[in-house]
Design a protein that fits this description.
With 254 residues, the protein is α/β, with parallel strands linked by helices. The chain has ten helices and eight strands. The radius of gyration is 17 Å and the shape is globular. The structure holds phosphoenolpyruvate.
């Protein structure tokens, strides 16, 4: 795989007018590149405004989560139909904050992935161990279990629609990114698992790294052919640092 994918997850930051300002600042310095794809995932309330701003641009719109039903009495939720209609191409599913703060289970995540795929939304499935799991030597087991349950019942022919994001929980929002070796090792294990279980050719599955990616560490991460891009939290809330990471992805795409 010879392209990079950079995704900015805004989490619960920015009012609609702040979102508009940030997108305008990102676009002011954005130059499309044939091998670097970019997406931003603002809060739901800003999707429509940002969809309009991105309309003539190659930056894609992503959502931060989705509910598994098309419509119904599910107060506070949002459906894949709605996300598709507003112009989302991607949806982040199973982010660690959804799993560990909001109680999403692997079964919920599996239903969400299926729902997204039903509506031609491309899931970005997040995987990652907690610190205590890593320290106990359980990283591989945890990530494989999340993969197995998250992808249950989904045929391998659908996998090209899915982006994986390895995001160790201990690295998210802590300023303590995984080392390139740590990330590359887990990415390699994910690829081996997908090959053994589903016959997926190792370098065909797009796997991003996420967890305190910044302009200071992105270059080293992008030197690794195991790392197909980055899912970025804090550093994407500033147009300059997000732009610098995108520029590094352009410079170091194999
Ligand atoms: C994230 O929210 O997915 C994330 C990786 O956050 P941060 O870059 O702030 O660690």
């Amino acid at each position: 795989m010879s392209s990079r994918f950079i995704v900015g997850n805004w989490k619960m930051y920015n009012t609609v007018s702040q979102a508009e300002t940030l997108v305008r600042a990102i676009l002011a310095d954005y130059h499309p590149h044939p091998t670097v794809e970019v997406a931003i995932a603002p809060p739901f309330i800003a999707l429509q405004t940002i969809a309009t701003l991105l309309a003539s641009n190659t930056i894609h719109l992503a959502a931060q989560t989705v509910y598994q039903e098309d419509e119904g009495a599910f107060t506070g939720e949002i459906s894949p139909l709605m996300l598709k209609a507003v112009g989302c191409r991607y949806v982040i599913i199973g982010h660690s904050e959804r799993r560990h703060v909001l109680g999403e289970t692997d079964q919920d995540i599996n239903m969400k992935i299926r729902a997204a795929l039903r509506h031609q939304l491309h899931p970005i499935l997040c995987l990652g161990e907690r610190l205590e799991e890593r320290e106990a030597g359980h990283t591989t087991r945890v990530v494989q279990s999340q993969l197995q349950q998250g992808l249950a019942g989904i045929p391998a022919k659908e996998f090209p629609q899915i982006t994986l994001a390895y995001e160790p929980v201990w690295a998210i929002g802590t300023g303590k990114a995984a080392t390139v070796d740590q990330a590359a090792e887990v990415h390699g294990e994910i690829r081996r698992y997908l090959q053994e279980q589903y016959g997926i050719e190792p370098h065909t599955q797009r796997i991003l790294y996420g967890g305190s990616v910044s302009p200071d560490n992105a270059e080293a991460l992008f030197h690794s052919s195991e790392i197909n891009g980055a899912l970025i939290g804090k550093a994407c809330l500033n147009a300059e640092s997000f732009g610098r990471i995108i520029a590094l992805a352009k410079a170091y795409t194999p």
